Amino acid sequence: MRTWLFQNNPVIVSTGTVGGPFEAKGKIAEDFDVLHEDLWLKEDSYEKAHKVLLEEASMRAAEKAGITKEHIQFFLGGDLINQITPTSFAAKTIGSAYLGLFGACSTSMEGLALAAFLVNHGGANCVMTGSSSHNAAVEKQFRYPTEYGSQKPPTAQWTVTGAGVSLIKDEGEGPIVTSATIGKVVDMGLTDPFNMGGAMAPAAVDTIETHLRERDIDSSYYDLIVTGDLGHIGRECALDLFKKHNLEVTEDQFQDCGLMIYREGQPVLAGGSGSGCSAVVVYGHLLNRMKKGEIKRMLVVATGALLSPLTYQQSETIPCIAHAVSIEYGGEKG
Amino acid sequence: MRTWLFQNNPVIVSTGTVGGPFEAKGKIAEDFDVLHEDLWLKEDSYEKAHKVLLEEASMRAAEKAGITKEHIQFFLGGDLINQITPTSFAAKTIGSAYLGLFGACSTSMEGLALAAFLVNHGGANCVMTGSSSHNAAVEKQFRYPTEYGSQKPPTAQWTVTGAGVSLIKDEGEGPIVTSATIGKVVDMGLTDPFNMGGAMAPAAVDTIETHLRERDIDSSYYDLIVTGDLGHIGRECALDLFKKHNLEVTEDQFQDCGLMIYREGQPVLAGGSGSGCSAVVVYGHLLNRMKKGEIKRMLVVATGALLSPLTYQQSETIPCIAHAVSIEYGGEKG
């Protein structure tokens, strides 16, 4: 078993989402708490701007819950930057006990799963969790500075500039975190860092299949099964794999955060990605839809490619992972 | 509260420790399960050798517990390499559900604290956790390739080549994980990456003080309070801080993993460090001493410096953290 059921109803009492200029032109701009006009956020490096995204999202989440940061007992988070420094530096500002995580773009749900586990079992009554990414900081580190203007293939994805944070409490009003399934590393031997979606799809399907089996539910239980950042290519791969595994997940029911965030016509190739992508889409757009009653039960499956520029240079394949968390609202419990 | 009490006695049923050639000449060589004669471990890169250290330690821990890897439900771990790839690649080999962590040299106890929490609360009955470092891989990434022979000041520490892993179960025979205190980020404004011990000492003292207060015990409760890798300089700073904070921790009672691993005369400057240091010293040497009855109650305080070469280049200070876990054996419970 790698699925946890949360019987004590850990609640997402508030969230904070911050985005950059490209996200401000996207499809779900109105779901952000803060949108910045430029990538620098008045800082003198992209990495410092990255940190500020997360700090702002944390402050917003605390404000909206009507608490000060002294009430936050634990902060769980991570990002894609070497040694996750934007998150650790933001953790200094947040000031609570801190557990640093690394799950690449799966970090959002790794954090939510652990936060809900801690709250469900009395390890804390107020936990903050979140993840973030910054397009220019991540591109510089993993590929080239964006100023080079180097070309990418259509299978590549666009790193989101944004931070999404949630505050989990043992009581209060809001969507309930009902269960989580922790992913295994799945590596199908792919090596192309410009096609992460394809590499990550099998990990997503493995986690979804395990989740449904271990919870003993049918895929129809969920109104929405939404992946972290598979993008166009990865989503197609996953839909193929569902058929092969005899999983009845419909095209309508199966969406991807990387395909929700930008508008048709924005030059994002196969879609959005980055540790901030699923965090801002879930904690902004999707929870807003839940509160409007449009979604009652969803399974968020954040996917991560656990490679580095160095493992790529050393000709290693891409190990992938996906962590799933179910969020329910407005049903029998909400 | 940032201290968890584990009422259901999560047990360390077995451990695995692997070291390199420099550790083989050290003071606690006989406490390792495996020692390698050279740094390459027959691999073609130091990072791949780093991964093998962890794989071997995991296999040893499983063997000693008489289980196959299929019984391991979760693996929690991390290291210092960008995007913690040695750990994630080893997680593929281990094959269980995987939660990637980043806490720099504090990762060993971040992992043990979470593993014990999961087992204590029924999230799993068999969890593996561990951390590792490789001197040449870490030096290359954080400073210079060792082949350059660049000089270091006497405040610098020597990165351990080693991996330490433990297997935590809900039943069985062995030392019990009784509580854990999660650290806050503490940053006293120091900026010298060649004096990590000094930077980390205040974080260690903050966590120890919080732990004693929240558990409502006196420091004399523990036979041993052992820090992750403060080294000579950091240990002196911590002893000074104990006095200032009116904490009665004696010099004998207060030891450091970074000062236990090597012999007098090995050129390690201020002592050992690295994510593998506290892992191999605790899971090898110290648990062996517990089993011999020499230590009944110890508090392991793994310290981490959460910087990166990039934050140093951007003139940032060094945020530090320390996570404490208490391990007890042979008292009323053991």
Task: Indicate the overall shape of chain A.
Answer: globular
For the record, the CATH architecture of the largest domain in chain A stands as 3-Layer(aba) Sandwich
**Separation of the first and last Cα atoms of chain A:** 26 Å
Overall pLDDT score of chain A: 96
Tell me the strand percentage band of chain A. 15-25%
What Rg of chain A is obtained from the alpha carbons, in whole angstroms? 18 Å
Largest sheet of chain A: 6 strands, mixed
Q: Please list the strands of the largest sheet of chain A in the order they lie side by side.
A: 1-9-14-13-10-11
**Under CATH, the topology of the largest domain in chain A is which?**
Peroxisomal Thiolase, Chain A, domain 1
CATH class of the largest domain in chain A: Alpha Beta
